[in-house]
Amino acid sequence: MAENLSRPIEILLVEDNPGDVRLTREALKDAKVLNNLYVADDGFEALAFLKREGEYLNAIRPDLILLDLNLPKKDGREVLAEIKADPGLRQIPVVILTTSKAEEDVLKTYDLHANCYITKPVDLEKFIEVISAIEDFWLSIVKLPRNG
Question: Is the pLDDT of residue 115 over 50?
């Protein structure tokens, strides 16, 4: 894993719940892998960040996106569809991290080429375990494409 240590893993969290943002930030702070977490709290902001528009002209291209489905302004399904339709963004792995357990959401997001679907636990300890598992798998085990 030495190559992962050469620079921090860049993570974009697209989440409108401040409590979930705080918990994710705390869980990642304890991560064994160096990472930078950027937060967008709605779908429009996430796409502006990814496309480096407006105030995000100098935004870093993330190595991994953690995407909630139930977002204000533009929901996660629309954001996922735009990411995966864009040749410049489609290689970024997208992990759906949402409260929805609906089978139609699972099927729809995989049809839109989500890389993973995880239902957020409501229990605090279990939520931290899930974030730690995401960190272990996506940041330590998986070989991510290097973004320039």
Answer: yes
Residue 100 scores a pLDDT above 90: no
CB-based burial, 82-116: b 16+ in 10 Å, e otherwise: bbbeeeebeebbbbbbbebeeeebbebbeebebbb
Identify the residue whose tokens are 């796409």.
47
Per-domain residue ranges of the chain:
2-141
Q: Mean pLDDT over residues 30-44, rounded?
A: 88
Euclidean distance between CA atoms 25 and 38, whole angstroms: 9
The CATH fold of domain 2-141: Rossmann fold (3.40.50)
